[in-house]
């Protein structure tokens, strides 16, 4: 089991917060202004919740 949050601060959930058993998630309506997005992935290890933090720059990708 997993819980994913995406926000403007570490651990924040301004843009997304949901639990899932899937190994992927689609998050829409993210900014493309170059701001920093903080992603926290919680996972259940035995009976203990643990998390990893990630940081991404929100930029618009190019399309070919």
User: Could you give the order of strands across the largest sheet?
Assistant: 2-1-3-4
Q: Can you tell me the residue ranges where pLDDT is under 50 for at least 5 consecutive residues?
A: none
Termini separation (Å)? Answer: 36 Å
Question: Helical percent range?
Answer: under 10%
Please state the overall shape, judged from the principal axes of the Cα atoms. Answer: elongated
Order of helices and strands: EEEE
β-strand percent reads over 45%
Largest sheet: 4 strands, antiparallel
**Averaged pLDDT:** 92
Describe it.
The structure is a single chain. With about 60 residues, the protein is an all-beta fold. It has strands at about 1-5, 15-20, 35-45, 50-60. The chain has a four-stranded antiparallel beta sheet, with no helix packed on it. The termini are far apart.
Which labels suit this protein?
single chain; four-stranded antiparallel beta sheet; mainly beta
Quick take:
This protein has 64 residues and is mainly beta. It is 0% helix and 56% strand.
Topology:
Layout: E1 2-7, E2 16-20, E3 33-45, E4 48-59
Antiparallel strand pairs: 1-2, 1-3, 3-4
């Amino acid at each position: 089991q997993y819980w994913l949050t995406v926000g403007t601060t570490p651990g924040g959930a301004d843009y997304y917060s949901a639990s899932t058993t899937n190994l992927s998630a689609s998050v829409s309506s993210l900014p493309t202004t170059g701001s920093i997005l903080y992603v926290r992935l919680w996972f259940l290890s035995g009976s203990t919740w643990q998390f990893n933090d990630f940081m991404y720059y929100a930029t618009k990708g190019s399309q070919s």
